[in-house]
Amino acid sequence: MITIYAYDWVPGFAKGMVRDYRVRWALEECGLAYQVKTISHTHKLTDEWKSKQPFCQIPVYEEGDLTLFESGAIVQHIAEKGDILLSADPVAREQAKGWIFSALNTVEPPIAQMVATTIMYRKEDWYKGAMTAQEIMIRDRLAHLANYLNGREWLVGAFSAADLLMASVLRQLDSTDWVKSDSVLGPYQKRCLSRPAYRKAIEGQMADFTGSAPPH
Ligand SMILES: N[C@@H](CCC(=O)N[C@@H](CS)C(=O)NCC(=O)O)C(=O)O
User: Fold this and answer.
1) pLDDT at 216
2) Does residue 110 have a cis bond before it (omega within 30 degrees)?
3) Residue 63 forms beta bridges with which residues?
4) Whose CA is nearest to atom 2 of ligand 1?
5) CB contact at 8 A, 6 and 18
6) In this structure, which residue's CA is closest to atom 14 in ligand 1?
7) Could you tell me whether strands 34-39 and 60-63 are parallel, antiparallel, or unpaired per DSSP bridges?
8) What integer pLDDT is reported at residue 215 of this predicted model?
9) Is the CB of 58 under 6 A from ligand 1?
């Protein structure tokens, strides 16, 4: 049985955004059965948890002898099981893997930086300058992505793990209109997020928030 680990509680702004939904989404797309175990923010700091996830984070995936962390690696592992999330065609399959890296290693870093700056440094006097610099970098990446996607339905052939991860990355910009208002990226994002497997993944995550805030 596949087991994935998620949090039992997160603050309101993070609900529906925690990265275990990326893994749930992949499992739902592939129709694979799985169970979810939840952990607390106190438990994530224990040595026991660090033996599964050295950076005290979630998600973690277990299947038989395999324990895996990093949501991108987990989604790729799930996709590798068949040809639902990675094409059976060997060329398209490898190209989609390239786009997995592109989503996580080219497009996500400036976005993740902006999200982290917003959460942690909003009160600093350099905050506005940092946000402006990050916006420039993000918009540059988005422009190149839109240019590539123009005229294409998906990143490589049919919907793949690369689209799943790219859409997950773009979701972090939901508080802006940078994706929504773009004539290519807006509809692309909609196509990805209208998939029933995505909806199930988000609903699953929301239903598993049964814990309470950690003591301060
Ligand atoms: N690169 C990691 C990042 C994981 C990550 O950022 N997890 C967040 C939840 S979305 C977390 O557990 N944060 C708690 C912390 O960093 O203390 C992945 O994609 O799995």
Assistant:
1) 75
2) no
3) 66
4) 70
5) yes
6) 57
7) unpaired
8) 83
9) yes
Mutate to test the pocket of ligand 1, among 46, 52, 57 (most ligand atoms within 8 A of CB): 57
Domains observed in the chain: 2-83+198-207 (3.40.30.10), 90-195 (1.20.1050.10)
Query: What ranges make up the beta strands (E) of the chain?
Result: 2-7, 34-39, 60-63, 66-69
Tell whether ligand 1 has an atom less than 6 A from the beta carbon of residue 19: yes
Closest residue CA from atom 6 of ligand 1:
57
φ and ψ at 189, to 5 degrees?
-60, -40
Report the alpha-carbon distance of residue 146 to residue 184 in Å, rounded.
6
Calculate the average pLDDT of the chain. Answer: 97
pLDDT digit string (tens) for 2-51? 999 999 999 999 999 999 999 999 999 999 999 999 999 999 999 999 99
Q: How far apart are CA 175 and CA 70, in angstroms?
A: 25
DSSP H/E element including 202: helix 196-207
Mean pLDDT over 69-97 rounds to 98
Q: How far is the CA of 183 from the centre of ligand 1 (A)?
A: 31
Is the CB of 71 inside a 6 Å radius of any atom of ligand 1? yes
Q: Is the pLDDT of residue 117 over 90?
A: yes
The string of pLDDT tens digits covering residues 152-183 is 999 999 999 999 999 999 999 999 999 999 99
One-letter amino acid identity for 81? K
Atom index in ligand 1 nearest the CA of residue 20 equals: 10
